[in-house]
């Protein structure tokens, strides 16, 4: 696409955003409708989970603390000396 041309969201293959996209910085409003600037079909990005283009939501990272048997930890520490 050339720099002088502008994108026509309403006439092209772009589909309106879904409710999960509210608050995203990549939303463009044109002709009383809201479209995603990055992806043609926003509903497809939210179908399997969170959209990877979303600027308003971050994935939750689960930190799991592994518990080590104290006897094994003592044996490992004694071998290092």
What tags apply to this protein structure?
two-stranded antiparallel ribbon, 2 helices, alpha+beta, rod-shaped, single chain, 2 strands, 21% helix, 81 residues
How is this structure best described in words?
With 81 residues, the protein is an alpha+beta fold. It has one domain. 21% of the residues lie in helices and 10% in strands. A two-stranded antiparallel ribbon has the order 1-2. It is rod-shaped and about 70 Å long. It starts with 26 loop residues before the first strand and ends with a helix.
Count of helices? 2
What distance lies between the first and last C-alpha atoms, to the nearest angstrom? 65 Å
Can you summarize the main beta sheet? 2 strands, antiparallel
* Lateral strand order in the biggest sheet: 1-2
* Relative helix content: 10-25%
Task: Give a short summary of the structure.
The chain is of the alpha+beta class and 81 residues long.
List the helices and strands and how they pair.
Elements: E1 27-30, E2 33-36, H1 42-47, H2 70-80
Antiparallel strand pairs: 1-2
């Amino acid at each position: 696409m050339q720099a002088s041309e502008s994108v026509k969201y309403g006439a092209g293959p772009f589909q309106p955003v879904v409710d999960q996209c509210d608050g995203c910085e990549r939303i463009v409003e044109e002709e009383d409708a809201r479209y995603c600037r990055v992806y043609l079909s926003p509903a497809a990005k939210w179908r399997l989970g969170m959209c990877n283009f979303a600027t308003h939501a971050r994935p939750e990272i689960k930190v799991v603390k592994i518990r080590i048997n104290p006897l094994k930890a003592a044996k490992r520490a004694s071998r290092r000396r």
